[in-house]
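A quick aside before the break. I want you to see a complete sequence-to-structure record at least once, exactly as it would be stored in a machine-readable document. Don't worry about memorizing anything.
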Amino acid sequence: MRGECLRMAADGCWPEAADVNHIDPEERRTMSTSSPTSRDLFISRKGILPRGRDLIRSPNRPPTLTARQSKQERLRLEQLHEERDRLIRLTIAHRSLETHFQPIIDLRSGSAVGTEALSRFAPEPIRPPDVWFAEAAALGLGVELEQIALDSALEQLKHLPSGMYLSLNASVETIMSEDFRAILDDAPAERIVLELTEHTPVTDYVAFAETVDRLRSRGVRLAVDDAGSGFSSFSHILNLRPDIIKLDIALTRGIDKDPARQALGRALLNFGLETFRTTIVAEGIETKGELETLRSLGCPSGQGFILGRPSRAMNRRQAFPLQLPRPVPELELVLESLTG
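That is the input. The structure line, written in C-alpha cells, reads:
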C-alpha cells in the first residue's frame, strides 16, 4: 500500500505530485519508513499529498463512533425495537391484517386445484409479510401472529369452490403448539394443506413427524416450500415425506432460457413424482416461456402472476378475478372454474 501511494504520487496522480522530486532525502526516509496506518504517513511539504490515513482508509471499514454517537445509535435501535413490538401487538389485538389468495393451477387442464393464503399488513412502515413474521418470532410473538393469520384464512374457506384446497403457511412452532389443533377443529381437514415455512429450522424431526402424522390421520396434507433453493428444504423432504413439493421461484424464474435450471427441474420432478409419488407445484411462474417449459417438463401444477395474482376473496363469484394473458388455450378454463 505504501509503495502504491508513492508510485501514484510520482506518476502524477495528484496535481501537485510533480513537486515530489524536490522532497529532501530526510523526508523521503521518513516517508518510506512510516506505517501506512500511521497518522504520520504524509509528506510534510504543504499541499503535496493528503494525509496517508485518508488515502488508505478502507472503503468497507465503518468510521469509529464516538461514545455519544454509540449511545444515540443504541437509543435509536431500542426505539425501533419498541415500535416494532407495539405494532405487532396492536396487529394481534385488533386482528388488523388482510388475507389474499393466489390460485394454484393444474397445468394440464387449466383448472384451479387450490389456493395459497397470503397475509398482508397495512401499518406503516410497509414491510413484506416475511419480515413481519420474522420480527414477531424474534419478539416471541410469532405463534400468536401466525394464529390470527390462520384464523383469517380459514374464515374464507367457505367461499372457495368446493374442489379447491386451501394452503396455509405455518411454522414448526405453530404446528406443534397446543392451540393449533383447535384452530383446525371446525375446518374440513381434507381441504387443508400446511405449507411449512422457513422461519425456524426443524430441530427434532421425530417429534415433528409424529405431530404431522396425527394431522394427516385427519386428512390434512403437508407441503414443503422452496425446493431447489437450499439444503433445508431437501432435509424436510427426506425426513417428512410431504404430500406436495413446491419448486422455488429461484428455479422457476428464467427456466425457459437456462438448460441448467431445466436439468435440475427435470430431476426434482422425477424425484418427487416417481420416487415419492407426491404432487409438484412450481412457484413464481411469470412468463409464457416459463409456463410452456414447465408444462413440457411434465410439471403438473403451477402458481404465479401469469396464472393469477394474489387477490382478496370476497365471495364465490369474486374470489379470484384473474386477468390471464391466455398463454395456452387450456388455461382459458381457469376463469370459468374460479368464477362459475
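Two observations worth writing down. The first helix runs from residue 2 to 10. The chain has two domains: 2-56, 97-339. We'll return to this after the break.
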